[in-house]
Amino acid sequence: MAYHAKYFGDMPSTDESLAQALYLETAQQENFETAVNNGICTALGGE
After folding, report:
1. pTM of the predicted protein model
2. What is the dihedral of CA 25, 31, 33, 36, to 10 degrees?
3. Residue 9, by phi and psi: left (phi above 0), alpha (psi -120 to 50) or beta?
4. Which of 26, 35, 41, 42 is an S-S bond match for 46, by CB 3.0 to 4.6 Å?
């Protein structure tokens, strides 16, 4: 429910909107992990 509130505010919760919120949170987390990994590689001179 917290992810739903984060992305959709006061919109009523449905199975579809909960799934969308979970997808968005997962995608955001994956993008964050990739950015951190790229930053570490750049800082350490990796590729």
Report:
1. 0.79
2. -140
3. left
4. 41
